[in-house]
């Protein structure tokens, strides 16, 4: 466990910091933003892998909106992590939401995404009794919006409720969500993105290189760690910028210009 | 101007006037309104504890922060949380704003996992009902300070969140009800201005007697593109500008500007002028010689005794300005040197001015009447 090959992404997220907390992301909201040119799904894969491999008492509640379990199982197997085994161990709860469709507004049983939250909370109460450190992961906020019939307010309500689970007085979960930046580009629809950015404790932005596509560099990441005030009295902001290259069995992160 | 904001909120409302209201607004480029909010909350709390303020209690309407984060905020700043029940009460609209958890727990019969929250807290589960929210706030305040003339202060930690749940009109109605409530001494709220239409922001600004706006130190030239310029980002995330607009009763508006700096211990404010120097120093192009003075050089320069000022030897300072000085006109228009007979060996310059209307050392060309 000591001799892990931490890469820059792990360091930026503070995952290498083992002595601070049992699971360094506890109580924090990590928002991952990507765009069409550069997908940031690998950030979720990386966090999943680290959570299972280096923190024996952690568990993940995964809300899948964009890909089925078999997809993640295949990807994570390449990274050296067996999701099926983790699921059988009770450390991964995979909630398949691919076919989720909320009833339309105005119908009798319209309660927004309350039922989704109810499912999440039920799993978490069970896990909490086992003294597990829980991460909630949503693999695509934009599909959540589709499921909610385009009601961004419903989405924000669910995000808010998931955020409440990160507070100390509740379960102290970690909450990780992925969203696409460029679908909010025009005008009045930006509120969802902005609101989530205000909420986020750690913001991960993936962008293509400004100079265009390159063979050795697949994009650049910016990790913005807003250390909020209620954590041990510190409130400093750290930013990390680096380039990455996605490989078959992992990612390579390096500072701009240091790749030979 | 953070001090004068705190003073105004502390002094509270006059009889028969609306309570002073502060809106703190920020944007994503400089998201530090909550730092300002906590700063003001702490200042006001210490005034309340010392009984120096008009209000005797604070009701915090928590929409975007958990009650436990307020507990740790107070603890961290050395306030006695145990005795705080007398003057602070949190209305928790954060944990369960829509009653989802409540519903789930009722059906599944699960007990609330909340542990010991040492601050007095009541939860509110129907944020959409703003009229009821007003009644609850007023009731909680009465519970803190009693039925009599005593007043309390209301802090709303996110007007943005409130605006998301309820319509503009109802939020404006809530604010105006709170302002005109005769037991409320002052109130302040937080707003993320880029989440709303300009219209909504303007409405809230109209309804507040003070608007504190937290602005980035440097505006990046083209919004999104500048995001990856880390140095700019770093700078915007440690300090910024703090603009405050005060509106007096008579309609006078005063705008002040300050700088703030975010430090591990909280937020600190400084007058903008002291930092202007460094800004200019940053603009001056890099040259091999030094254009600026260091502090020591500045002091040394101010100590230099200029020639012709015979200072320090007891005599009054005399600098000849071309006219007869008062002293000499008293001694009946003697030539300037006449009083110094004993120095006559040294040689002297005798000068009589032609007339008093000639300006000394005038810039006029003495030869301009020449006709060549």
From TrEMBL, chain A:
One Pfam family in the UniProt entry: ELP6
UniProt xrefs under InterPro entries: ELP6, P-loop_NTPase
UniProt pathway: tRNA modification; 5-methoxycarbonylmethyl-2-thiouridine-tRNA biosynthesis
Superkingdom to which the source organism belongs: Eukaryota
An annotated GO cellular component: elongator holoenzyme complex
Segments passing through the bilayer: none
Biological process (GO), any one: tRNA wobble uridine modification
PANTHER family for this protein: ELONGATOR COMPLEX PROTEIN 6
Family: Belongs to the ELP6 family.
Listed name of the protein: Elongator complex protein 6
Organism encoding this protein: Glycine max
Gene: LOC100797712
TrEMBL record, chain B:
Annotated Acidic residues bias: 355-372
Region feature Disordered, mapped onto this chain: 325-372
CDD domains: Elp5
Domain of life (superkingdom): Eukaryota
Coiled-coil residue spans: none
Annotated GO MF terms: tRNA binding
Entry GO terms, CC: cytosol; elongator holoenzyme complex; nucleus
First-listed, main subcellular location of the protein, grouped into a coarse class: cytoplasm
InterPro entries reported for this sequence: Elp5, P-loop_NTPase
Pathway(s) served: tRNA modification; 5-methoxycarbonylmethyl-2-thiouridine-tRNA biosynthesis
Name of the protein described by the UniProt record: Elongator complex protein 5
Subcellular locations according to the entry: Cytoplasm; Nucleus
Signal peptide: none
Family: Belongs to the ELP5 family.
Keyword Transcription: no
Keywords: Cytoplasm, Nucleus, tRNA processing
Entry annotated with the keyword Cytoplasm: yes
Record GO biological process: tRNA wobble uridine modification
């Amino acid at each position: 466990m000591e001799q892990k090959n931490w890469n820059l992404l792990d360091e930026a997220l503070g995952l290498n910091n083992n002595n601070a907390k049992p699971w360094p992301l506890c109580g924090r909201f990590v928002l991952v933003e990507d765009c069409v040119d550069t997908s940031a799904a690998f950030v979720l894969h990386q966090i999943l892998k680290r959570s299972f491999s280096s923190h024996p008492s952690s568990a993940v509640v995964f809300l899948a909106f964009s890909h089925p379990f078999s997809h993640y199982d295949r990807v994570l197997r390449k990274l050296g992590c067996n999701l099926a085994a983790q699921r059988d161990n009770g450390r991964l709860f995979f909630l398949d939401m691919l076919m989720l469709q909320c009833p339309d507004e105005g119908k009798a049983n319209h309660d927004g995404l309350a039922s989704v939250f109810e499912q999440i909370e039920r799993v978490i109460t069970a896990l909490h009794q086992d003294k597990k450190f829980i991460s909630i992961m949503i693999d695509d906020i934009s599909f959540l919006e589709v499921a909610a019939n385009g009601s961004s307010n419903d989405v924000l309500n669910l995000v808010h409720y998931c955020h409440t689970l990160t507070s100390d007085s509740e379960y102290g979960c970690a909450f990780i969500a992925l969203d696409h930046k460029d679908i909010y580009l025009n005008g009045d629809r930006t509120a969802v993105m902005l609101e989530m950015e205000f909420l986020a404790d750690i913001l991960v932005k993936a962008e293509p290189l400004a100079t265009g596509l390159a063979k050795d560099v697949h994009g650049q990441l910016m990790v913005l760690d807003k250390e909020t005030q209620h954590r041990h009295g510190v409130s400093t902001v750290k930013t990390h910028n680096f380039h990455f290259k996605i490989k078959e069995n992992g990612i390579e992160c390096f500072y701009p210009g240091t790749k030979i | 101007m953070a001090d004068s904001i705190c003073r105004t909120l502390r002094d509270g409302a006059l009889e028969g006037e609306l309570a002073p209201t502060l809106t703190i607004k920020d944007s994503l480029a400089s998201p530090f309104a909550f730092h300002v909010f906590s700063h003001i909350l702490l200042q006001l709390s210490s005034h309340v504890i010392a009984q120096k303020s008009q209000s005797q209690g604070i009701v915090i309407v928590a929409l975007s922060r958990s009650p436990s984060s307020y507990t740790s905020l107070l603890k961290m700043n050395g306030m006695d949380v145990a005795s705080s029940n007398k003057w602070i009460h949190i209305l928790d609209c954060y944990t369960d704003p829509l009653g989802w958890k409540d519903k789930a727990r009722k059906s599944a019969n699960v007990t609330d996992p909340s542990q010991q929250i040492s601050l007095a807290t009541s939860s509110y589960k129907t944020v959409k009902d703003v009229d009821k929210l007003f009644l609850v706030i007023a009731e909680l305040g009465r519970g803190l300070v009693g039925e009599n003339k005593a007043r309390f202060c209301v802090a709303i930690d996110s007007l943005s969140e409130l605006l998301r749940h309820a319509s503009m009109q109802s939020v404006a109605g809530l604010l105006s009800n709170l302002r005109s409530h005769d037991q409320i001494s002052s109130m302040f709220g937080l707003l993320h201005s880029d989440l709303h239409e300009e219209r909504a922001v303007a409405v809230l600004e109209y309804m507040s007697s003070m608007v504190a706006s937290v602005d980035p130190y440097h505006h990046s030239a083209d919004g999104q593109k500048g995001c990856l310029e880390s140095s700019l980002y770093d700078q915007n995330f440690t300090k910024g500008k703090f603009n405050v607009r005060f509106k007096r009763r008579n309609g006078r508006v005063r705008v002040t500007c300050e700088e703030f700096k975010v430090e591990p211990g909280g937020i600190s404010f400084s007058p903008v002028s002291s930092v202007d120097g460094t800004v200019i120093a940053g603009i001056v192009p890099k040259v091999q010689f030094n254009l600026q003075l260091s502090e020591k050089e500045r002091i040394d320069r101010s100590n230099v005794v200029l020639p012709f000022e015979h200072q320090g030897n007891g005599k009054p300072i005399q600098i000849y300005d071309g006219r007869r000085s008062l002293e000499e006109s008293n001694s009946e228009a003697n030539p300037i040197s006449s009083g110094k007979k004993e120095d006559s060996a040294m040689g002297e310059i005798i000068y009589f001015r032609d007339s008093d209307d000639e300006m000394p050392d005038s810039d006029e060309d003495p030869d301009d009447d020449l006709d060549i």
